[in-house]
Amino acid sequence: MRRFFAVLVCAGVAASALFLGGCKKSGPASAGALIGIAIPETHVTRWVKDGETLKSEAEKRGYRAELQFGDADQSIQNRQIQTLLGLDARLIVVGNINDEVAPVIAEAAQKNVAVIAYDRLIQNSADYDYFITFNNYKVGVLQGQSLANALGLEQADPKAPKSIALFAGAMTDGNAFFFFDGAMSVLNPYVENGVLKVVGPYPKTSADKENFAKIATEGWQGTIAKARMAGLLKEDAKSVTLDAVLAPNDHIARAIIDACRADAKYKGKLPLVTGQDAEFESTMLIKAGEQLSTVFKNTSKLAEAAIILADQIVKGETPSIPGAVLAEGSLAEMGNTGKKTVKTYLLDPVLVTRDNLNVPIDAEFYTAAENEALK
Ligand code: BGC
């Protein structure tokens, strides 16, 4: 009888927006429910594709989807998330900008709206339960390995050390710390045995906040990285020829390459530059031998996996996501927000160099026209 009454109440108030929230938690129907998608930025082009794929994957599963791009400004994104809450979103997928997002995540929790942290951990919040991303430490390890291989560090002679400059991503993005620490776990031993020399600031790990801040790139902005590289070439790297630059992603890699191109010393021989995201422009540079590598994170699969997770959460099912593993043991720490450890699902990144450019192509990561250009 009680159950019958509950059903009646929920059915009876279907027209009342006020009551819909109250019935939302155990609401049976997912069809037509709204999934909100809050994407941090568009200047790093991967995010445009992430947003569009998330939207189409949600719609494919019978949801309505509302997509917002935050322009790398947390106050803008916070307003967008509030708008999504006002539209009665059932769940929100958030790729945040920095931890000032926490208060709106708390508002979502108050309204019983589940949040999935997408690609980037939402730090300093205990108001959500799920995070889906790539193994970001491994992204860095792959960057470090590609440099170690290309520079021949195993065979290098300490009498003729190779030189490298270090760049990192935004300090407001927890991923930047994982990328850097992964890369340095590979490179530090070569600095210690004398075959690799760091030019400019040298934080051994991101824990050296003072030096890490010097190599970090505010807002992941290419213009900032380009200016820092140009300055480095005129100062710390003035009397050396850099063999390599650790760049955290493709957007920054291209900015670094641009700065080097403007310096006569690097005419004809650019330093070896890493990257990440397998952005088309960078894959073209890899093909041309101008960028060393990128890390392919199949973000189409990430978006699909995030929506499978969203669907399972909305339906109250136990998450089980093909292609993603639940982080356990030390990996589970990747989900430590500082206030709680959220369930973290990881996908696997792949190193791409000139030798295996086919990997993102075969994964249908590019458009037909882009594939044509990459042939
Ligand atoms: C993402 C990278 C991206 C960077 C800048 C990071 O959080 O994991 O894929 O290049 O943000 O947008």
Can you give me a brief rundown of this structure?
The protein is an alpha/beta fold.
Low-confidence stretches: 1-28
- Quickly count the domains: 2
Bound molecules: beta-D-glucopyranose
Q: Architecture of the largest domain, according to CATH?
A: 3-Layer(aba) Sandwich
Task: Give average pLDDT, whole number.
Answer: 92
How would you explain this protein's 3D organization?
The chain is of the alpha/beta class. It has 2 domains: 34-128 and 298-347, Response regulator (Rossmann fold, 3-Layer(aba) Sandwich), CATH 3.40.50.2300; 136-296, Rossmann fold, CATH 3.40.50.2300. 42% of the residues lie in helices and 14% in strands. It is built from 14 helices and 13 strands. The chain has helices spanning 2-12, 17-24, 46-60, 74-86, 102-110, 136-151, 174-192, 209-215, 222-234, 250-261, 280-287, 299-314, 358-362, 368-374; strands spanning 34-39, 64-69, 91-94, 114-118, 130-134, 162-166, 196-198, 244-246, 272-273, 294-296, 325-326, 343-347, 350-352. The strands form 3 sheets. Strands 2-1-3-4-5-12-11 form a 7-stranded mixed β-sheet, sandwiched between helices. The chain has a 4-stranded parallel β-sheet with strand order 7-6-8-9, sandwiched between helices. The termini are far apart. 48% of the residues are buried. Residues 1-28 have low confidence and may be disordered. Beta-D-glucopyranose binds at residues 44, 46, 119-120, 169, 173, 175, 220, 249, 276-277. Residues 44, 46, 119-120, 169, 173, 175, 220, 249, 276-277 line the site of beta-D-glucopyranose (BGC).
